[in-house]
Amino acid sequence: MMQQPELIPHLFRTEFTKITAVLCKHFGIEHIQLAEDIASETFLRAMETWTYKGIPENPTAWLYVVAKNKAKNYFARAHMFQEKIAPELKQLTPAPSTEIDLSDKNITDSQLQMLFAICHPAISTEAQIGLALRILCGFGIDEIANAFLTNKETINKRLFRAREKLRAEKVQISIPDAAAIQEHLDTVLTTLYLLYNEGYYSESQDTIIREELCLEAMRLTRLLLDHDITNTPAVNALLALMCFHASRFPARKNERGELILYQDQDPALWNLELIAQGAWYLHAASQGNTLTRYHMEATIAWWHTIKEDSSEKWENILQLYNRLLQLQYSPVAALNRTYALSKARGKAAAIAEAEKLGLTDNPYYYALLGELYEGIDNGQALQHLQTAQHLFKTQTEKQTIQRKIDHLPTT
Fold it and tell me: Residue 59 and residue 150: Cα distance in Å, rounded?
């Protein structure tokens, strides 16, 4: 059994989000801050009580009881306040029932409905991700600030404005009806995709992968698959992509936390169970005629689970990137395509295509050019690697580039 120093942070990560989602659904989106406050006070009470009285037999049930009691106390105080105030307050919206349903089903339903409420198009994408990290992943303000490479004040202001906007828009905490589900689902999937990428391409805390962000994105994506109306090919494709990427977590960094490039990874460290899960979700995504960017990216990721280099592998990946760019262009996808082009058609062809992109503020652009020029013009390769090293933000990325510089032939 976990001891208190480890148990409370663990429960905060797993239960804060559930309590907040249920309370927010119960109170309404206009009381989102109240739901967070009650959940936070519940854990504060746990820290104060368990230190002296010990950990209860069922800590999760203890938290739920305390959260329910705090909600009831809030209603009691609100009721007393209303009785003492002028009759005009009686015109306010009646208070909801004091019965808080913390059953497993209601927790799951509430989290899914909160996901749709938070991913409302009325607020910015950054605010959507910030609220998702706070409400659905249980991240502290410090952690969210780190994820966005900014400070606590900025995050507090951003989340405050987002809550106010949701309140002003009178956003309902519910699953959209069938007619509107596709529009809202696209926004939800974009938020989950960005949340995963925030962890997979981490530039914070000198950490090249923040697995907790990736795992939370996967957990929330799985919630969508638990409901028939949101169990769509696009959702399955996104989860397949996440599984394939997650399968290489152990192989993607060394014992010093430095990035290990794909071609240098040990396939023995790849997680075969996650690869199998990804293949299952990709098969499920193939039902029907839907084709999204997630389908293309997941299929590219599947090819990367085959370690052996072959002309068939890289030609397929190149063609998938071509199709992906037709479907939805992005500079990052175009850059990745040039690597596949180098493997399929040679470095000279890839250099010509890469230099057309002109991504002069992107460290990965220069890192790729450095690799492509190696053996063709080592002087150019060195210049590009040094520029990449200057642009990368974390020490681990800078050290990875330094290793490549150290191994670059001098002639």
Answer: 34
| C-alpha dihedral, 291 to 293 to 296 to 301, nearest 10° | -140
Q: For 14-64, what is each residue's pLDDT tens digit? A: 888 889 989 888 888 888 888 889 999 999 999 999 888 888 999 999 999
With beta carbons less than 8 A apart as the criterion, state whether 33 and 49 touch: no
Q: Two tokens at 318?
A: 């190149």
Characterize 352-366 residue by residue with b for buried, 16 or more Cβ atoms within 10 angstroms of its Cβ, and e for exposed: ebbeebebeebbbbb
How far apart are the two ends of the chain, measured CA to CA in Å? 60
CA dist 21 and 116 (Å) reads 12
Provide CB contacts within 8 A for 381, sequence distance 6+: 369, 370, 371, 372, 373, 374, 408
Q: Can you give the pTM of this predicted structure? A: 0.80
According to DSSP, the residues that pair with 253 across neighbouring strands are 259
Which residues, other chains included, contact 284 with Cβ-Cβ below 8 Å and sequence gap of 6+?
233, 236
Select from 28, 173, 161 the least CA-distant residue to 114: 173
In whole angstroms, give the CA distance from residue 242 to residue 232: 16
